[in-house]
Prior knowledge:
mainly alpha
Amino acid sequence: MNPNLLFKLANNAALIGWILLIFLPRWRWSARLIAPVLVPALLAALYSWLVVTQFGHSPGGFSSLTSVALLFQNRATLLAGWVHYLAFDLFVGSWEVRDSQAAGIRHYLVVPCLILTFLFGPAGWFLYFLIRSTANRSGVIESAEEAALSAPHNDIRDYMISDRPIATANWSAKAPINQSMSFAIGVPSGPVSGTSIHEQRKQTQPRCP
């Protein structure tokens, strides 16, 4: 197949992953499936095919810089090296997004790291490492409320809109808060294990004679 066409296809596939990481980092499929798994898997398949079909068909090797330069005079081998960089750089960028979300680092600080990783690989990772190391001391960590609002899934919000039971441990750990909230909304306080909020409200509503 035409190496120039494969070069364009590989670049476009990697670019899709980077766009998702930069502009849609909180989308559940961006940093957990498409960018770290699907796109690198396609690039890895292309890389493996190039290595298998071109191995031993060109002079050069990895024993010296001169041998490496001679090896990459073959356009197919050169394409394999480029695809190698595309796959691993995207995988590292996906890790940066996932790690920053877990650490609560604001995404606008991660974007320069992603761009630098896309262009210069290890330099972008090194920048993220510096930001990650100094985040706790510089006050760029998201608060718990901000992280909860921006997260793809929020357990508290899910409990409030569903009929799932409330765990007994939550009542016992936050008894004073639950008592005051129960008084305000008319829901009995205490460990009501296996009873949902909607069921409790139905029990406390006055019945018509």
